[in-house]
Structures are given as structure tokens and as C-alpha cells.
Design a protein that fits this description.
Strand content: 5-15%
Shape: globular
Largest sheet: 4 strands, parallel
Number of strands: 14
Strand order of the largest sheet: 4-3-5-6
Oligomer: single chain
């Protein structure tokens, strides 16, 4: 967008996202183009903030002292400050929910005795360990592991990787607590024949159901794009079967409410394209949340998600089904920013600039912004080359922090 002539960027996200966008732009020669947040208020993130505690650095310091070849795989949804501090302590690479498993698999191939420290999302880390355990317990052969996971892994190497993952124990996103015991029991009791999906961030019990289903081809675990692709594929396969009888497909959606719209749209497009044939396919998207996460309305029996009985917000009992911070990025707020840009109200726009906590700071004699950018660049290199960056491998093997 910058290369095509954009003069300003509006970043719809939480503060650390706009901070990262601004930094990466500056590192690519576009620091003169301002990045604006949708609101002048602080837009926080419970998950990101869990990695800014002293306990997180203490966990990293302990790993540095205990492990010969440690690698910190940090979820991309963390602040630039977290990335900088982490990179000053231990070799660090960022990851997304889409590439976290590939990152771990590749790193353990290139450094077989590596110790992977994953944080801050405790659910995601524990779910990855559960996933590897389920694959091993299901008796996957070396050939299947090579085919479906990584061409240079086998049962022994996968077991070694699983046993060498150290998950930060105290990092969670408030939104994903809505998948509690009540939801898990409902899925088990009433949706036995349904396809079950789960994002890597959901609590363990919900994830385990989807994991078991995935091993039978009746579910999927992974990123939001993995879930969308799986549901679309199953509906398309049902359409192509061209059976004369009516079939109802049920999909239990174990991820945030924001996914519902894109999934429904994809399913509707597939079914609409099949009209005129003999296909009689129906698809039901089940969004399971705790009853505390559903708010009644005055007119009729309609229940609305998100919302909680006690008012707007999130809670461990159920909470709203979308992040209260991300909801600060609405169309009205974006329109206000656009109008200020058009009217050149620079004084007001200053309050919408992202936080710049690392500007001018040094950590261990290194520019803090450079340190914060390094884990992101390592991830970009991995995604481009399908291999760990040579500099990162050298740091892991040296562990000379």
C-alpha cells in the first residue's frame, strides 16, 4: 500500500498490532507514513499483557540457564516490547496459529536436541503437546508422519519434540474461556455425529474432542483458516456426492464468534452453486458457548451472542464471544480517523498514533526496536524459505546470551 502511494494507514487492532505495523514500515523505508489507531484510548489485550509480567521474563531466564539449546517461540499477538525483551534473553522467533506447528517441527529437525519454550498462550501450547501425543497414541506410522506432518520426522523424533516443549503456564486470552465444561458436555452428549472444529487457543477439553475427531476425518484443529477450509471442503465433498436424499451436515465451531460470518458465507456460496442439481445438502453451523455468554432480548425468545447477563464484557464463566478490546475498532471510529486525516487535524491525530515504548531505548547495548523486530524477521524468513534463518540457528546453538 505504501509503494502504491498510501499517505497514512489505519490499523484496526489492539495497540501492539499498530505498534508492530509502524515499526516494520519504518524498517522498510516508510517511517514517514503515519499509522493510526481507531481510538485515542488504550486498546489492550489480556494475552499480550500476560507476557509483559516479571514472571514471563523469569521463565525465560530459567530456560536460558537450564537448557543447552533453547528456542523461544512467541505468539505474534504480543507487544514489540515483549519481543525485544525476549530476544535479549534467549533466541526468539514469532509464530502465528497457522505456522506454529510447522515452526516447531522444522526447528527440531535442524537442532535435534532443541528445547522449545512456547508462550504466552498456555492453551495453545498445551494443545500442541496434546496434538503430538494424540498422533503418537493413534499409532501413526513413520510414513504417515513424513507425509502428513514433516518429511524429516518419524515417531521417535516427534516424541522427542513433544517431550522438549516447555509451555508458559500462566497466559490466557479471556475470550476463549467461554468454552467451559457446560459446552464440552453438550457437545459430547448431543453432537456425537457432528464434525467438530477447534482453534489452537481454546481450552483443552474442547480441543481434545476436536483432536479425536480429526484423527477420524470428522474434525479439524488449527488456525481459523484451517477451520474455514475444512468446513468448506466437507460441504463441497457432500455436494459432489450428488446423492438424491437430503443430508444435514453439522459443524461445531470451537473458535471466536467472528468466524461465523465467513464460514456461513462460504457454505452458502457452495450450496448456491449446486442449485439445479440433485443435491439436497443442508449445513448447520453450531456455535457452542456457555449459557452465561448468551443475552436475552426483550422482544421474543431471541438469544444474542455476544453479551453476558451482567452486561457487556468477558468473564471466565462465559463472557462475550468477541474481544471487548477489538470491538473498539468499529466503523464509526474508523470514519472519525478518516475525516481527521482528510481535514488534516494533526493535533487530534497525534493521540491516535501507536505507543512507541521502545523509541531511543537500548537493551544490552542493542537498539530495542531492532531487537523487537528480529523475531518477526526470523518468522518471515522461515515462511519464505521453509527453513530456520541461519543467524537464528547460530544463536540457538551458541546460547551465548
Amino acid at each position: 500500500m505504501c509503494q502504491d502511494g498510501a499517505t497514512s494507514i489505519a490499523c484496526l487492532g489492539v495497540d501492539f498490532m499498530s505498534e508492530s505495523v509502524s515499526t516494520i514500515m519504518a524498517r522498510n523505508g516508510f517511517g514517514h507514513i503515519p499509522v493510526y489507531r481507531a481510538t485515542a484510548k488504550h486498546i489492550g489485550c489480556s494475552l499480550a499483557e500476560s507476557a509483559e509480567r516479571d514472571s514471563y521474563r523469569a521463565w525465560l531466564e530459567k530456560g536460558k540457564a537450564s537448557y543447552e539449546h533453547p528456542l523461544h517461540v512467541v505468539y505474534i499477538n504480543t507487544s514489540l516490547e515483549t519481543k525485544a525483551v525476549s530476544a535479549s534473553v534467549i533466541p526468539t522467533i514469532t509464530c502465528t496459529s497457522s505456522n506454529v506447528m510447522a515452526t516447531m517441527l522444522q526447528a527440531s529437525v535442524e537442532v535435534p536436541d532443541i528445547k522449545i519454550m512456547y508462550g504466552p498462550d498456555t492453551y495453545m501450547g498445551e494443545n500442541l503437546v496434546t496434538m503430538f501425543t494424540s498422533i503418537l497414541d493413534a499409532g501413526w506410522s513413520d510414513e504417515r508422519i513424513k507425509k502428513d506432518l514433516h518429511p524429516e520426522h518419524d515417531r521417535q523424533s516427534l516424541r522427542n519434540l513433544r517431550d522438549n516443549i516447555d509451555v508458559y503456564p500462566s497466559g490466557n486470552c479471556v475470550v476463549h474461556h467461554m468454552f467451559g465444561n457446560e459446552v464440552v458436555n453438550t457437545v459430547k452428549n448431543y453432537y456425537e455425529d457432528a464434525y467438530v472444529t477447534a482453534h489452537l487457543e481454546v481450552p483443552g477439553e474442547m480441543f481434545e474432542i476436536a483432536m479425536e475427531k480429526s484423527l477420524e476425518g470428522k474434525g479439524v484443529v488449527g488456525s481459523t483458516s484451517d477451520i474455514l477450509n475444512f468446513i468448506s471442503k466437507k460441504v463441497q465433498e457432500a455436494v459432489e456426492d450428488d446423492l438424491p436424499t437430503t443430508r444435514r451436515l453439522q459443524f461445531v465451531l470451537g473458535t471466536e464468534a467472528g468466524m461465523v460470518t465467513s464460514i456461513v458465507k462460504s457454505v452458502e456460496e457452495i450450496l448456491k452453486a449446486a442449485e439445479g442439481g440433485n443435491n439436497q445438502i443442508e449445513a448447520e453451523i453450531v456455535f457452542p458457548v456457555s449459557s452465561d455468554a448468551v443475552m436475552g432480548v426483550d422482544d421474543g425468545d431471541l438469544g444474542v451472542v455476544p453479551g453476558v447477563a451482567g452486561g457487556e464484557g468477558c468473564s471466565t464463566a462465559g463472557g462475550c464471544a468477541t474481544c471487548p478490546f477489538m470491538k473498539m475498532n468499529d466503523l464509526d471510529a474508523l470514519n472519525d480517523v478518516a475525516e481527521m486525516v482528510i481535514d488534516k487535524e494533526d493535533c487530534m491525530l497525534k493521540a491516535h498514533l501507536p505507543p512507541n515504548r521502545l523509541e531511543g531505548k537500548m537493551i544490552n547495548g542493542v537498539d530495542a526496536i531492532d531487537l523487537g523486530s528480529e523475531p518477526i524477521l526470523f518468522m518471515r524468513s522461515f515462511m519464505q524459505n521453509k527453513a530456520m534463518d541461519t543467524q537464528l540457528i547460530q544463536k540457538i546453538k551458541a546460547n551465548s546470551y
